[in-house]
């Protein structure tokens, strides 16, 4: 066990050559600093990229119609599918594990021809016909007013919710928006809300130029009948949309006489699968961070090992005297290992503290300059700190093991003869 005399001996040994001790300790200090910083930077990238998913329903997918690639049951190759409201109802009835199925339609586009008019101002905007639950599948901040409701759906109200760039394009500064009217493809709609997409994952400019109207109103006003262009589908908690989606495809293929092996007829984007791939990538980066950090740390441990060998050689006579006075091999070995551990742990903890200071500095800069794309809140968990401490203890033991073994192999008589 440690006692005051043992501490005095260890400090005296480390202070005997301060420059050598400092340079040796720097290897471990730098290795553990790099390890923690690499993991913090990896976490910052993970936080930045996955924050785009944020509150987004990550267990969702989007499905749209494409052209068939295989002829089947009288349906020729190259025919474009057309979804109907009845398809949505069939999916909802046959797959109870689904939480939301939101049919969608769209027209126009912010880069196309002008399709929205307000007074003398016109603009080209993306128009979506949606259901109220879409806001839960793609969360957005309602800046003013409200989003769509089921009373709007049932009554087929001509109301709309508009994005920030629509407001900029059609309204003067400080002009009242809520309660005003805009004309979409010749049809008047009352503005009941304005929004901003939260954690955009697509084209943020397009989303800012978006107008939402009730799905039923869209189909009636623009003569879409019971057509559905695409669907946003979310699985219930505890179920994976990735494991369910093939059942959804099978229902559509059966209803539309699509060949069972025709995977091109149905387009989709599985957000849960994409989220899993991104997390997998960052898990690999974390492993790489550990690997690189441990390699750098190993160079510091080798340095401590070499220095401890030199220290043992310099203290050969002292070791001989101790052995002659009755010190056991384990007492000698324990002293060398303790010196190695103290040097390793002290330098390592300084490295952890320095890395924590750098991480704090990075977060302070990010807070002052605002959000940085794909990078946010670099940090490490307590698990990383515990792992770093474990690595330090193991490194200290390994660094002192060879010198300690060499010290215990000396015969007291031979050690005392060395001048």
UniProtKB/TrEMBL annotation:
An example of a GO molecular function for this protein is: transmembrane transporter activity
Q: What is the membrane topology listed in the Swiss-Prot or TrEMBL record?
A: Multi-pass membrane protein
Q: Name one GO cellular component term.
A: plasma membrane
- State whether keyword Transmembrane applies: yes
In what residue span(s) does the ABC3 transporter permease C-terminal domain sit? 291-412
Question: What InterPro entries does the annotation carry?
Answer: ABC3_permease_C, MacB_PCD, Macrolide_Exporter_MacB
Q: What is its main location?
A: membrane
Chain ranges of the MacB-like periplasmic core domain: 21-248
User: Which positions, given as ranges, span the membrane?
Assistant: 21-41, 287-312, 341-360, 380-402
Q: What top-level branch of life does the organism fall under? A: Bacteria
Q: What is this protein called?
A: Putative ABC transport system permease protein
Its lineage reads: Bacteria, Pseudomonadati, Bacteroidota, Flavobacteriia, Flavobacteriales
